[in-house]
Amino acid sequence: MAISIAIALLTGCASPTELSFDVGEPAESDPVTVTNDATATAIDAEPTVTSASPEMVGNTDRTFDAAAMELRFTKLISDWTKCFHRPSNCDVSLSTAPESPERARLADALAYYAAEQLRTKPNEGTLEWRIESISASSNDRVRLVTCEYDTRIFFDASMADTEIGDIILDATVWTRRVEWVLARNDDTWRLWSRRIERRSPAEKFCNV
Predict the structure, then answer these.
(1) Separation CA 198–CA 109 (nearest Å)
(2) Each residue of 53-101: pLDDT tens digit?
(3) Domain covering 3-200 assigned CATH 3.30.70.1050 in the classification
(4) CA distance 51 to 33
(5) Dihedral of CA 166/169/173/175: which sign?
(6) Rounded distance, CA 207 to CA 185, Å?
(7) Buried-most residue among 96, 125, 159, 208 (CB within 10 A)?
(8) What is the pTM of this model?
């Protein structure tokens, strides 16, 4: 399933080594446990071919409704990306789980983006993505692998109120394979971690 999301990105607090959507969590040895050590570099890997609405698999007592999970993930990603329209006004608790690596990372990134006045605009590029696989590691953890095609443009908005206007900072087009982990919290699912498995500014290595 390809989903287009128009996004505006801003920035916020201690400077991340890269812009937020290119920062993720490191690989985890146990799907249930995700560390809080953020990294900024993607790891190249071969793409896989899956259906648009993949079947969710896990242990026999860990069965989930894949269609419902896909809908929930769509909402979470929508909230997550909207944070970058107005970083200083974003409520990270809407999309991220309490005490999660992603909540800490997202909050830090938004604080830096707001301070530096960096952003994307809703009508300047899009983020398209599709789910390649879904798996359940426990009753309260679900792992999704997605492929993204990202044409969003970063702007420096520090001169937005002058005749100069927004300045294009980065117009790189990225293809990424991303691992997301969702955690169940208060009978709903929220983002726990994000890890970039592969990215390329030149090769569109998966179908979105």
Answers:
(1) 21
(2) 344 444 344 567 899 999 999 999 989 988 888 888 899 999 999 999 9
(3) no
(4) 27
(5) negative
(6) 32
(7) 96
(8) 0.70
